[in-house]
């Protein structure tokens, strides 16, 4: 492209570059724009689709909207738009609709550019009677900003949010029985940049996807005895760490955590991974939250494996064992998580117990541990109670999948009485498997149970 740069065009492109830098500071792809009329800037805009949950929030659209507001006119005749990157088809279309007089862009965009790189909407005589185009203005400066941004993202694809902590990787080195590759997501709408860790093993077209949801204060490590069984059957396993737990980011404030937010994250997670033929595997908070998921997308779920958990509907009293647990957590917020596991599971090695302390190197990382016990819905209008009542109706009347319930009988918190009540609310739930050796964390005795579940759900022996 030719570059008959005038100092005036360069001056305005520098202002567009300043907007691009503002986008970058906000975690967006650095593209900026300004709209000029009669030698004066009348509007600015920068790329903001992530922050605004808005796929149309490109720099040009933001600037065009602001300019039209400033002029009180949706036609931008006599205006020039400066933008650091070649406009896409959407933005080019908007400029043509606005009858913009002129667009000046910086770097060409070989992937989506609609001013010559991929297509050229501006040279279509049927579309454009008004807008002149000039490309390559301060091209090197504009392109450098983008290249540096993407390089940084490759090196550090999930920058840490200011209001969160991230347990150092070293804390998770050499954990016994946990060889799987960490996977991360931070661009679900609800996550807003928080990094969620998950395991995703086995073939994506497997006949069953085991969606394993842990509770408080555990993480996906809890499923290490069950995952190999599911994989050996040729199935897929997906096991996320709830935000605040395991290898996922940990918001600093206790008050960050709410029932509704965590449920939204899980719903978005299932949609993003497009999980099909799901066997939902739940225990503790994995069930409090997880049992409310299938009603939102029943076609995705075919099986349920439910271990010590409950639906907290706010219309039945919480168990005395749970109330005692909640009181303990409030009185001793820094309780030793490893010791909690050791007490109920004499078969676990010291290193296995220590793996449950690994996510929480200090009190700052323990906001979720403090928040979750008090988050269990207790009254009818507590956050999560209404959705749990809706879920109860779903399991009672609409659930058409195959179920298996296993009860760790040594659990004082969500043990046999709580589980018998839950079984009566799950349509077609067969008589529960009773595990006399297992406590609250049933998964620590989960290998045999996993084999049983595979056999029942696949009809093989
Ligand atoms: Zn665009």
List the total number of helices.
Answer: 15
Biggest β-sheet: count, sense, barrel? Answer: 8 strands, mixed
Biggest sheet strand order reads 7-8-10-9-12-13-14-15
| Shape annotation | elongated
What is the tally of beta strands?
15
Strand composition percent: 15-25%
Average pLDDT level? 95
Uncertain regions spanning at least 5 consecutive residues: none
- Euclidean distance between termini CA atoms: 69 Å
Bound molecules: zinc ion
Question: What is the structural class?
Answer: alpha/beta
Gyration radius (Cα, Å) is 27 Å
Helix content: 25-40%
Order of helices and strands: HEEHHEHEEHEEEEHEEHEHEHHHHHEHEH
Secondary structure: elements and pairs:
Blueprint: H1 7-25, E1 32-37, E2 40-46, H2 49-52, H3 59-71, E3 79-85, H4 89-97, E4 102-107, E5 132-134, H5 139-155, E6 164-165, E7 183-185, E8 196-201, E9 209-213, H6 227-232, E10 236-240, E11 250-251, H7 259-273, E12 278-282, H8 285-290, E13 301-306, H9 320-331, H10 337-344, H11 350-354, H12 367-375, H13 385-398, E14 402-408, H14 416-423, E15 433-435, H15 446-458
Parallel strand pairs: 3-4, 4-5, 9-10, 9-12, 12-13, 13-14, 14-15
Antiparallel strand pairs: 1-2, 1-3, 6-11, 7-8, 8-10
Helix pairs in contact: 1-5, 9-12
Bound molecules: zinc ion.
Zinc ion binds next to α4.
Question: What this model shows, in words?
Answer:
The protein is of the alpha/beta class. The chain is 34% helix and 16% strand. The chain has 15 helices and 15 strands. The protein has helices at 7-25, 49-52, 59-71, 89-97, 139-155, 227-232, 259-273, 285-290, 320-331, 337-344, 350-354, 367-375, 385-398, 416-423, 446-458, and strands at residues 32-37, 40-46, 79-85, 102-107, 132-134, 164-165, 183-185, 196-201, 209-213, 236-240, 250-251, 278-282, 301-306, 402-408, 433-435. Strands 7-8-10-9-12-13-14-15 form an 8-stranded mixed sheet, sandwiched between helices. It has a 5-stranded mixed sheet with strand order 2-1-3-4-5. It has a two-stranded antiparallel ribbon with strand order 6-11. Helix 1 (7-25) packs parallel to helix 5 (139-155). It is elongated. It starts with 6 loop residues before the first helix and ends with a helix. The mean pLDDT is 95. The chain binds zinc ion. The site of zinc ion has 6 residues, from helix 4.
């Amino acid at each position: 492209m030719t570059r008959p740069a005038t100092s005036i065009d360069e001056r305005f492109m520098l202002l567009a570059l300043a907007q691009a830098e503002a986008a970058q500071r906000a975690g967006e792809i650095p593209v900026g724009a300004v709209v000029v009329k009669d030698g004066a800037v009348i509007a600015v805009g920068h790329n903001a689709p992530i922050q605004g949950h808005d796929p149309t929030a490109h720099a040009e659209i933001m600037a065009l909207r602001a300019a039209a507001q400033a002029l009180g006119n949706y036609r931008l005749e006599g205006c020039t738009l400066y933008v650091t990157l070649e406009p896409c088809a959407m933005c080019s279309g908007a400029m043509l609709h606005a009858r913009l007089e002129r667009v000046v862009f910086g770097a060409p965009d070989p992937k989506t550019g609609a001013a010559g790189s991929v297509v050229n909407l501006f040279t279509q005589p049927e579309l454009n009677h008004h807008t002149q185009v000039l490309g390559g203005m301060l091209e090197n400066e504009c392109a450098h900003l983008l290249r540096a941004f993407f390089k940084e993202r490759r090196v550090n694809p999930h920058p840490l949010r200011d209001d969160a902590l991230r347990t150092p990787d070293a804390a998770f080195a050499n954990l016994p029985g946990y060889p799987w590759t960490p996977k991360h997501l931070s661009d679900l709408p609800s996550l807003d940049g928080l990094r969620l860790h998950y395991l995703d093993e086995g073939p994506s077209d497997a006949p069953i996807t085991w969606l394993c949801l842990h509770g408080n204060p555990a993480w996906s490590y809890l499923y290490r005895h069950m995952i190999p069984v599911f994989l050996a059957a040729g199935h897929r396993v997906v096991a996320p760490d709830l935000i605040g737990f395991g290898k996922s980011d940990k918001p600093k404030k206790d008050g960050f955590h709410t029932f509704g937010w965590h449920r939204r994250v899980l719903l978005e997670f299932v949609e993003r991974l497009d999980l099909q033929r799901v066997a939902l595997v739940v225990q503790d908070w994995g069930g409090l939250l997880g049992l409310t998921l299938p009603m939102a997308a029943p076609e995705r779920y075919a099986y349920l494996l439910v271990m010590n958990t409950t639906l907290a509907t706010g219309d039945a009293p919480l168990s005395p064992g749970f109330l005692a647990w909640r009181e303990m957590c409030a009185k001793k917020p820094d309780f030793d998580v490893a010791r909690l596991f050791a007490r109920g599971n004499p078969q676990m090695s010291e290193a296995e117990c220590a793996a449950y302390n690994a996510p929480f190197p200090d009190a700052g990382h323990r906001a979720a541990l403090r928040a979750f016990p008090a988050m269990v819905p207790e009254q009818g209008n507590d956050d999560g109670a209404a959705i749990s009542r809706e879920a109860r109706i779903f399991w009672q009347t609409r659930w058409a999948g195959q179920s298996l319930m296993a009860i760790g009988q040594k659990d004082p918190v969500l043990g046999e009485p709580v589980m018998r009540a839950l079984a009566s609310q799950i349509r077609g739930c067969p008589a529960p498997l009773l595990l006399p050796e297992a406590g609250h964390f049933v998964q620590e005795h989960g290998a045999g149970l996993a084999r049983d579940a595979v056999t029942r759900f696949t009809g093989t022996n």
